[in-house]
Specification:
The complex is a heterodimer of chains A (489) and B (453). Chain A contains four helices and 36 strands. In chain A, a hairpin with an 8-residue loop joins strand 31 and strand 32. Chain A is 8% helix and 44% strand. In chain A, strands 1, 3, 5, 6, 8, 9 and 10 form a seven-stranded mixed sheet that branches. A five-stranded mixed sheet of chain A has the order 14-15-16-17-35, covered by helices on one side. Chain A has a five-stranded mixed sheet with strand order 18-19-20-21-36, with no helix packed on it. Chain A has helices at residues 2-15, 85-94, 445-451, 470-478; strands spanning 25-26, 33-34, 41-42, 51-53, 60-66, 72-77, 80-81, 99-108, 111-114, 118-122, 130-136, 147-152, 158-163, 170-177, 180-189, 194-198, 205-208, 218-223, 229-242, 249-262, 267-269, 279-286, 292-299, 313-321, 326-335, 343-349, 355-361, 374-379, 385-387, 397-402, 408-413, 422-427, 438-439, 455-462, 483-484, 486-487. Chain B is elongated, with a radius of gyration of 27 Å. Chain B is mainly alpha-helical and 453 residues long. The chains are: A mainly beta (489), B mainly alpha (453). The interface between A and B is medium-sized, with 31 and 39 residues.
């Protein structure tokens, strides 16, 4: 019996994909790998770019990553190449600002094929510690298991901050001040609705953000660089569904306003300019210097109208004085998308004040459900916008944000299958040149993304682990106590 | 004589099998459709890493066989019998032999609840095994060692964390099973000198008394109304339209799901317009009722949407129903339908995700393997008897819809393909049920004039 067992184990061991790439047919084309990492620019501290052959027929895949100095890294696997994480970081560290050459071979039924090598450029600009995102099925109105997670970008480690097994409801709108989790906010919807706020690494507290002078609960938060304010919108949100075609759902506002929350005074600061009935105002963000508030605004539809394709959001700006918390007295149009019959969502200024990235779609503000949605880069010096061609795809690009050094962007894209949102990263240099976007690395990417039936919702950078106590947060959520937001008189 | 108790256990097991196979088969189908057991290491690890994960995994593994009710009934019968046999080993029951059946009977009653999960039975089995392991000889310090081993092990493999589908409910009946599972052997141990000697008469007597009391409790706790509703849902899932009509002809349904399925079966046979009035109706709510945010009631309506060619509406309804499963599990039935709707809509990569997952199942893998080659093959889809037909019947123009199905939606469907007999049946029935005879006549004339071309 033991002999049979040993024989079986031996056969199993040697049948695994560990063999020399001999007599390989030399292919003129570059390999078709998943994810597409050909010619991408990566940060020096990114996790290994493991990959699979894109087709399902490969029996084995082999890769050699080499630099100009004779250093190399080899991996071979049945499904994916899986580089040793320490060796990978060592190799990248030695090649900061330089490129690596990747030679891929794949074994098929007719033997080994070796493809024309491709390059990966290792940027001298590092990327932040990680990203934080919500994982949720891309559904309609009902939700199953969901939660907020953080992922270390230099490894494959993912950690749950909180999920809805800990309370009854939905969690969303995680937000940090320039990626620093010392200032953090999080929304809970449903029976235990609340906004959890943590300022300057202090204790987390649960708030009721709904007041009698605002439309509803505060959403879409954006921290002021000082940490003293948070810009919010309040939205009356509706959904309608598409009867045919690839589009599934339209999420739209039938009313929305803006307000800024003074964290220290626990007061919402309102302005008549930002709560006009004739305008839908949403997605407020502070400029890098904290002296402007950018936001999206569209002319409101007549009551009861469902001409959703006529809702076009422009990009606007209003002055904001951080010393007094007062708004300016006029609204300035920054990008007029309406005249192009387009619509802007998710404005995100770079933290160096140089650019502003936004999503442009045909109409509306909930661009994740718009296959045509693309990212655009606004040069804040010249006022010119251009499509971020390297980062865009034929399918949806939507939410995005900048790394703290303003050289990397994390963006949500549905390019993989048209439905499930995945995080991609691209490099943007000082002149606004955008590199080809690459997908968040995984140990076995094909298996991981095929088997995960969840979208990465609102991926945003964090500069360090969030140190979020999910147990304490769920106690706060399940407790009835909520501190009410006040309103500045 | 010594082994006479085997006969009683056998009797109990056979009774359980017959009960679940004959009287409660659709509860078993119901259980199966709210989970998706995958032969996949990640899936297994995600379950077993939690306290009580092994019992949960075994429960899920067994539940996949509930697709075939008699196999499910057999599994339940065997497991409940094992619970009794292990209970028997925990004490010398003597004249109170019949009490060794109490936990099994209570678990039987617990399983009458459609939200009770089979992991509950495995949990009790593991608890009994742990108790038996602790109580075995020799005693003394070795017993303490066994306690130290058994308790954390029991926590890991059989903590009752997932024994009920609704996580916010702590079922009291299951707590009673656990308490009695501990208390009864202790009681018997304390009273051991009064319980001996026992004989066949006392064993039989105590068995009959327990079986009679528990039998009454089973009868009281049976939910045959739910069983009938689940039967309609089962017939809709498997498109057993003739069986639906046989069933409604025997007994008219008096619940919304039953009426919805009845009308779908009538429409599938082209009888809804002409014969709909001969059956129980629930106004327009019996045709395409508003979708609720639960996992069960939308499914028959979703089947009607799908058969009508309202593919996006069906897709949304099924997706939402799956999301509403209380313990966050996925559903083989829903995955299958979502693969189909995405395939019909040409969203092949999304369909592939569902199909690849279904390839890892025991009972859906053949279907997934047959369907995967269709992805992207437009000619094969066009020729497919179901998907090709539904593509033709589907909406051609995009418009927005909300939670209510309106006659405009059915009208638009019929105009997109005037040969869509089902759309004609539903639209005309809608007008008839709302008393709009003029519109019903117009629809009839439109259908007659266009479908003949």
């Amino acid at each position: 019996m033991k002999k049979i067992l040993y024989t079986l184990l031996t056969i199993l061991f040697f049948s695994a994909c560990t063999e020399n790439v001999n007599d390989a047919m030399q292919e003129k084309q570059q390999p078709h790998i998943y994810p597409d990492y050909l010619g991408v620019t990566i940060p020096v501290n990114i996790a290994p770019l493991n990959f699979n052959m894109a087709d399902a027929k490969a029996l084995c895949v082999d890769a050699v990553v080499a630099d100009r100095h004779g250093n190399s890294l080899h991996s071979q696997g049945e499904e994916a190449v899986d580089f040793d994480i320490d060796d990978w970081h060592e190799l990248l560290g030695k090649n900061r600002g330089d490129s690596l050459n990747v030679t891929v071979s794949a074994k098929y039924a007719d033997g080994w094929h070796t493809y024309r090598p491709f390059s990966i450029y290792v940027s001298a600009d590092s990327i932040d510690y990680g990203i934080c995102y919500r994982l949720i099925e891309p559904g309609y109105e009902v939700w199953s298991k969901m939660g907020i997670y953080e992922r270390d970008l230099s490894s494959f480690d993912e950690r749950t901050l909180i999920d809805n097994t800990q309370f009854e409801g939905c969690v969303n709108c995680h937000s940090f001040n320039r990626g620093n989790p010392a200032d953090m906010s999080l929304h809970i919807r449903g029976k235990h609705g609340a906004t959890l706020l943590r300022q300057n690494n202090g204790p987390m507290a649960a708030y009721n953000t709904k007041t009698d002078q605002t439309l509803g609960f505060c959403v879409y938060p954006y921290w002021h660089p000082s940490g003293k304010y948070i810009a919010y919108s309040t939205n009356t949100t509706n959904q309608l569904f598409h009867s045919a075609g690839h589009n599934r759902v339209e999420v739209f506002d039938s009313a929305s306003d803006l307000q800024v929350y003074d964290v220290e005074k626990n007061e919402l600061i309102l302005s008549p300019l930002l709560k006009q009935d004739s305008i839908y105002e949403t997605y407020p963000v502070f400029s890098a210097d904290g002296r402007s508030l950018y936001f999206c605004g569209a002319r409101a539809l007549p009551e009861g109208s469902h001409k959703l394709d006529s809702i076009h959001y422009n990009l606007y700006r209003i002055d904001f004085d951080p010393a007094t918390g007062k708004f300016g007295d006029k609204i300035e149009t920054v990008v007029d998308a309406e005249t192009q019959h387009k619509s802007i969502s998710f404005p995100r200024p770079s933290y160096d004040g140089r650019f502003l990235c936004y999503t442009l779609s045909d109409y509306g503000q909930f661009s994740i459900w718009h296959h045509e949605a693309d990212l655009y880069l606004l040069d804040l010096k010249t006022g010119e916008s251009k499509p971020m061609t390297g980062a865009n795809s034929k399918d949806t690009e939507s939410f995005h944000n900048w790394s703290t050094n303003s050289r990397w962007m994390v963006l949500s894209s549905r390019r993989d299958d048209g439905l499930y949102t995945r995080p991609y990263f691209c490099h943007i240099d000082a002149n606004g040149v955008v590199s080809k976007a690459f997908m968040l690395p995984q140990k076995n990417p094909k298996r991981f993304y095929l088997e995960r039936f969840l979208s990465f919702n609102v991926p945003d950078f964090i500069i360090k682990p969030t140190d979020f106590d999910g147990g304490n947060a769920s106690r706060l959520i399940n407790d009835d106590y909520r501190k009410d937001f006040g309103v500045r008189k | 004589m010594k082994k006479i108790h085997i006969l009683f256990t056998l009797l109990f097991g056979v009774a359980a099998i017959l009960f679940f196979g004959l009287a409660y088969p659709h509860h078993l189908h119901y259980q199966e459709q709210y989970q998706l057991f995958l032969f996949d290491s990640n899936y297994v690890w995600d379950i077993v890493k939690h306290p009580g994960g092994v019992a949960d995994l075994l429960g899920r593994f067994c539940t996949q066989f509930f697709l075939y009710a008699w196999v499910g009934a057999f599994i339940i019968g065997v497991l409940l019998s094992l619970v009794q046999l292990l209970m028997l080993r925990l004490a010398d029951w003597g004249r109170l032999y019949g009490l060794s059946f109490v936990p099994s009977f209570l678990l039987w009653i617990f399983l009458l609840d459609e939200n009770a999960l089979l992991s509950s039975v495995w949990t009790v089995l593991f608890m009994e095994l742990a108790a038996w392991f602790i109580m075995m000889k020799p005693g003394g310090w070795k017993r303490y060692v066994r306690i130290v081993i058994a308790i954390p092990l029991l926590y890991c493999i059989a903590w009752p964390a997932h024994i009920y589908r609704n996580p916010s409910v702590s079922p009291e009946l299951f707590s009673a099973v656990v308490i009695l599972g501990i208390a009864l052997p202790l009681l018997v141990y304390v009273a051991r000198k009064w319980l001996q000697p026992s004989n066949i008469v006392s064993m039989l007597g105590s068995f009959i008394v327990v079986a009679a009391i528990m039998g009454l409790m089973i009868k009281q706790n049976c939910n045959f109304k739910a069983e009938k509703i689940m039967a309609y849902d089962f017939m809709a899932t498997h498109q057993l339209w003739n069986r639906v009509l046989d069933t409604v002809n025997e007994e008219k349904p008096n619940n919304q799901i039953g009426v919805t399925v009845q009308n779908l079966a009538l429409a599938m046979h082209g009888m809804l317009v002409e014969h709909g009035s001969e059956y129980n109706q629930n106004g327009i709510n019996g045709l395409l009722p508003d979708v609720q945010s639960d996992a069960t009631s939308p499914m028959p309506t979703a089947e009607a949407f799908y058969q009508l060619g309202m593919i996006n509406v069906a897709q949304r309804t099924v997706f939402e129903a799956q999301e509403a499963i209380l313990d966050f599990q996925k559903s083989g039935r829903c995955y299958k339908r979502l693969a189909e709707t995405n395939l019909i809509n040409g969203n092949y990569e999304v369909a592939r995700k569902y199909l690849v997952a279904l390839q890892k199942t025991l009972f859906y893998s053949d279907w997934a393997n047959e369907t995967l080659p269709l992805l992207g093959d437009e000619k094969a889809i066009a020729k497919h008897p179901e998907y090709g037909r539904l593509r033709k019947m589907a909406y051609k123009e995009d418009f927005y819809f909300s939670d209510h199905v309106t006659p405009d939606m059915l009208e638009s469907l019929l105009r997109a393909n005037p040969k869509n007999r089902l759309a004609y049946e539903y639209l005309t029935a809608y007008y008839l049920l709302t008393g709009d005879v003029q519109s019903a006549n117009n629809t009839y004339r439109y259908y007659q004039s266009t479908s003949e071309k």
